[in-house]
Structures are given as C-alpha cells and as structure tokens.
C-alpha cells in the first residue's frame, strides 16, 4: 500500500509541476461534479413536494433540476477535455524529462546493460501513458471518494442501512480491480522485456546495415520467427489477464447485486418514506453510482502503474553527471603509474609528453580500450595514479578528467545530421581547418548538406565518416588526443596524409593512438605493448621488432607480406568520395558499413 501512495504522489506532484493550472481546474471541476448526485436528491425531493402542494416555487425548482442535469453533462464534458489536455502535457513533459536525464547520465553508467534497460523502460513508461494515466486516476479516485461521501450524507437521512449498503456496493469492484491490477503489476517487467526483444528483432530487419546483412544471409525469416515468438508470449500474457478479468468480474457482479439488493430492501422497509423521497433517493443513487462506476478501474490503475512509476521515479531521481567544464587545450605531460583496473589491467605504467605520438598496441582483449576508458573517466580505477602536468586526476569526476581529453572511438558514430551540425558537436571552432586536417574537405563542399540516408541525405563510406569524426575531434581541440584505430577505414595514402597533419599539429598536443597497423606504428615516437593487462614491452617500432618478442610475432605477417600481407585490423574500405555539394551523386557513394 505504501508503494501505491508513493507512486500516486509522484504522479500527482509531477502533474502539478507540469501543468498546475490544468490540474487545479480538473480537481476543482471534479469536486463540483462530485456534489451533483447529492444535490439531485435534494432538488428532486423538493420538486416533488412542490408539485404535491402546488407551491409557487415549482417552476423555479423544475428549472433548477433541468439546469443541474444540463450543467452536470456540460461540466463533465469540459472535465473530460481538460483531463485529455492534462494527459498530453504530462506525456510531453515526461518525454522531455527522460531526454534530459539521458543527456545527463554519468558516462561510467553507459557501460552497464542495466542502464540501457532502465532508459528503455523509462521511455516506454512515458510513451505508453503510464505516468499520465496514474495522475488522472488519482483525480478520479478523489472524485469517487467525494461522490461517495456526499451520496452517503444525502441518503443517510432516509435510511442508514440503505446508505451503508449503497457504499458497500462499490467494494467488490475495488477488490476485483485491485487483485487483477496486482497480477498485472507483477508481470509488467516480463511483458516489457518481451516487447523490447520483439522490437529489437524487428528493428534489425528495418535499419539499412543489419537489414542488408540479414538479406545477404537469408536470415530475415529467422528474425521474423523469433520476433513472432516474443509477440506470442506478450499475447499469451494479455489473454490470461483478460480471462482473469472476465472470471473475477462475474464474482464482482454477483456481490454488487447482493449489496445493492440489500440497500433497496432496507430502503423499501422504511416506514416514514414518502413516494417523493423514494423517487428522489433512487434517482440520486443511480446518478451517483453511474458517476463513480469506474472507481474500481481507477483504483486498479493506481495499483497496476505502481511498478513502472516507481522505476521511473528512481530513474528521474538518479544522480546526474556534472556539467562539462571548459576544455584544456594544452597539456605538457601525462603520467600513468601502477594503474590497476579490476580483473583487466595490472600495474600499468606509461608516460606521454607534449609533441609526442604515442601508440598502445596489443592483441584483442589485452586491455587497450579499458586503458583509454580509464584515462578519460568512463571506467573506474581500482589503484594507481593518473597525473596531468602534476595534477592528480585519478579519482576526479568525469567532467574534470574529460576536459583534458578528446577521443575518437573505434566504433565512431554516424549521425544523420547536416555536415555543419556534425562538426558543431566537436566545438565552435573553424570547420574549414578541421575538414582540411581530417581530409574531409575532399568531399565536403556544402556544410548544410544532410547526411544519412534515413533522412534522405547523402550516404558516405566508412572512411568518409571516420574523417568527419576526426574533424569533430579537431574542433574540440583538447590537449590530449586519443585515437582508437583512427584510420581503420581509410586507405594507405589517406592514412599518410592524416598522420602528416597530426604530426604538424602535435607540437603542443599529446597524441595517443591505438592501432594494429604496422604502417601507422612506424610513425609513432613510442609504442607500449599490452599483453594480458600488463605492459610487457615499450620502445620505437624498430626497437620492439628487433627484440623478437610478442610484438614481433604480431606484426611479422604485415612486414614480410606473409599470407597476402593480411592486416589484423581488417580490410580497408575503398573510399569513393561523395560530393556533398551535389546530392544527386549520393547514389554513387553508398555507405559501405558492412
């Protein structure tokens, strides 16, 4: 019960912050409407007596009854429309709040699958209307309670037992809906999980890259069948719930008939009751019960939405990352000493100085990505120190660490924005220089050109997207650059051009490169070789290759051309520049992401 009150209060306060005037108007109208059944009992009774006695007030009372009925219907329509507006406002603000929270998630949480699950659940809660339904259900319950009290007060003057049994007639509906909604709440997360799996499988058959690969594998039918399996599970759960509702509704009907029958039996046995009072009371009872006939549903909604709303409340109240700090554009020295990351990195030591190109190399799973993630603050450090220009940032916040770094991840993103918007993500600097340094000026001639075929824009090759990512990093312009396979999708000539520019601008920068290309590593001032979470070798390319150790073993095939000179980083995409000033050419620059 405590959880129901907590989630209801959360929904009500959220509605109050979102649309205070609309919520106030809805509550006021609900309270006014709640008094109508009791007023109807009094007015109909007074009208009946006036008719019997030929009173001069008969016409006035008749007009008041008509006005009451017409006013009730009009105000009910207005209240319903205001309720719709309130729900729309709550849903709109709910989505905006989720967007805000997602944009403020601490980066270290993004690595956890539970975070992704919480975000998706939060989006589904606000998109499915759980939050808005809970808020309006609270107002409906307030309305029903007020109607019940006023109806009891108006009937109790004629017969106490009739008043009591009339109110008791509402209890079976409350019990049934409470029970069914509790069952629904228990299976909400399971149902939600089935929906997410089905939607994920369907999305893979829609988006270009995975859909194309599935078509080439003739695997779309398997994905369709798997999605259908999850949708069948959802349908099975829904059918079981509706079957449960039908079964319990039969019990509810029998119990309600019994209570209402006892109320009428007690009513007709009242010795002092007149025909006029009886008519007025029955009219009031029927009007009141009709007004609050869905109170069971409203209470059921409070119960049913408790689980998703408590989850949403926890998500809304979760800690936010600090706002970004100004970028530090120059750093003289980065020093890592005895760095440990639980179960991955052990006693890592390295030093990088301004003007140097440093490389981190190792087999897959050696800990390279973990190391750079720990440096920029997206992975926790268990022990050791990280200092920049003598400042210890080992346990500093992400915002404090990140201001020193700019990172080009291996899995760079392909944002379906305009060229200008893509570049502004990096910073407010001069886009012309950034495009030149990354080599993107060869295919970018219009900053307002839309990218991404999803929005009808130009498709780019993997190498072209990678060049735009490098341009963004240049616009951020931090003192320390971390490049994870920065030329993996770029041909050898383009690679030479990019590293020549990096060498030119690295005079006041520290550049750290993660790479498996021998051609790239030959340009490095120093290489650190990671093996099983430890740095086992360091030196220049020639020094390490001459040692005949693990580094030599890893790069022998590339240097000697054995087995077709296979590159461990994988094949390089053939860059076919798309002229971004001429959208009609986009078909010639297909997005070779496969």
From TrEMBL:
Enzyme superclass (EC): hydrolase
Enzyme Commission identifier(s): 3.6.3.-
Region (Disordered): 562-594
Species the sequence originates in: Corynebacterium matruchotii
Record protein name field: ABC transporter ATP-binding protein
Annotated GO CC locations: plasma membrane
Residues covered by the ABC transmembrane type-1 domain: 135-304
Feature: compositional bias, Low complexity: 562-572
Compartments where located: Cell inner membrane
SMART domains assigned to the protein according to its UniProt record, in alphabetical order: AAA (SM00382)
Family the entry assigns: Belongs to the ABC transporter superfamily. Siderophore-Fe(3+) uptake transporter (SIUT) (TC 3.A.1.21) family.
Major site of localization recorded for this protein: membrane
Gene Ontology molecular function: ABC-type transporter activity; ATP binding; ATP hydrolysis activity; ATPase-coupled lipid transmembrane transporter activity
